[in-house]
Specification:
This protein has one helix and five strands. By secondary structure, the chain is mainly beta. A hairpin with a 5-residue loop joins β1 and β2. The longest helix is centred in the first third of the chain and has 9 residues.
């Protein structure tokens, strides 16, 4: 697969629903329909006072099938398409 930059992936996610196939931490593969498009995502509700450590290799997205926030590692992406 051609490697896309984080900004390219971010632009795709902000413009609509994207299919992302990636390798999960347990080694299995997952295909997720996700987005960051306004009007689809539900704002994140902070439930603790804990500060989140920023990791530039992780993309947090709205999973449209599970109706929840999920994330994947950018270096684990196998395919990404609309």
């Amino acid at each position: 697969m051609q490697t896309l930059s984080k900004s390219n992936i971010l632009n795709m996610l902000q413009s609509g629903i994207v299919n992302v196939k990636f390798t999960k931490a347990d080694g299995s593969e997952r295909l997720m329909k996700c987005t960051l498009a306004e009007g689809i995502v539900v704002p994140h509700e902070k439930k603790t006072d804990r500060e989140k450590t920023v990791n530039d290799n992780i993309m947090s997205v709205w999973d449209v099938e599970k109706n929840g926030w999920r994330s994947f590692r950018l270096d684990s992406v196998l395919e990404i398409y609309k």
